[in-house]
Amino acid sequence: MALLQKAAGQGHAYAMNVLGSIYDVREEYETSVEWLTKGAEAGLPIAQYTLGVCLDAGKGVAAPDYPAAAGWYRSAADAGHGSAAYNLAIMYYVGRGRAGQIMSASSSLSSLSSIYSPLFLSLNGVT
Asked: I need a labelling partner for 34 at 20 to 30 A (CA). Which of 20, 44, 58, 89 fits?
């Protein structure tokens, strides 16, 4: 753990993400969100996605922050993270995103096809 903290302190985004994940498993959500935020701000898509999950669920924050979660999902999805694109589309579909949600959901779902195969999406009930 000490080596991870040292690496994260030196700006290594992957170490920040791993620390965030470790603290999440330990149910130390506020510390998890702190490290995930650093990794997300450093541009690491997996950290952006995981931070979005935490914000969407209200883990490590006072209450769910849907607009912030959608923003992090969007950043990760734009970098090719398929689960982030899926979560973003679902947020829009159920009305927890921003304005223009139906079009945004459609756009997010169509971007999934560039990440996942159409067969995979069909088998999982996405198309």
From this structure: 89
